[in-house]
Amino acid sequence: AATPSVATGARLRYKPTAAPIASEATEYDPTAAPAAAPASGYDPTAAPNPEPTACAGTCCDSATWAEHDEPTHTCKWAVHRPQTRCRHRDAAGTPAFEACPAACDECPPPSLAPT
């Protein structure tokens, strides 16, 4: 292990030991070669997608909901203060908690039944 040498303010400077400690050296040695490729089904794209993937779950926020007269007040805005912002409504009268269930923590609990 390293031993402290000279104290500088609240920080200590450490001198490295001559060689790694045997128990630590074997525990953290990297592998000689990279691990095998991921299992099949993993198919990354060549470049990042320009837009996030659509929600595939059962509890998704609306991509179009915005508070009446405030186009920047979307589900992404509501998530930061859901206790108050999720009561706000859009021009059609839809409250954020209906249009943004994930942001407003309104998603039903996951089912324990097998699928």
What's the gist of this structure?
The protein is an alpha+beta fold and 115 residues long. The protein is built from 4 helices and 2 strands.
Structural class: alpha+beta
Silhouette: elongated
Average of the residue pLDDT scores: 77
Estimated share of beta-strand residues: 5-15%
Poorly predicted regions are none
Largest sheet: 2 strands, antiparallel
What count of helical segments does DSSP give? 4
Please outline the helices and strands.
Layout (H helix, E strand, L loop, with lengths): L2 E6 L2 E5 L6 H6 L47 H4 L3 H4 L10 H4 L16
Structural summary, described in words:
The chain is α+β, with helices and mostly antiparallel strands and 115 residues long. 16% of the residues lie in helices and 10% in strands. It contains four helices and two strands; from the N terminus they run E-E-H-H-H-H. It has helices at 22-27, 75-78, 82-85, 96-99, and strands spanning 3-8, 11-15. A two-stranded antiparallel ribbon has the order 1-2. A hairpin with a 2-residue loop joins strand 1 (3-8) and strand 2. It starts with a strand and ends in a 16-residue tail after the last helix. The mean pLDDT is 77.
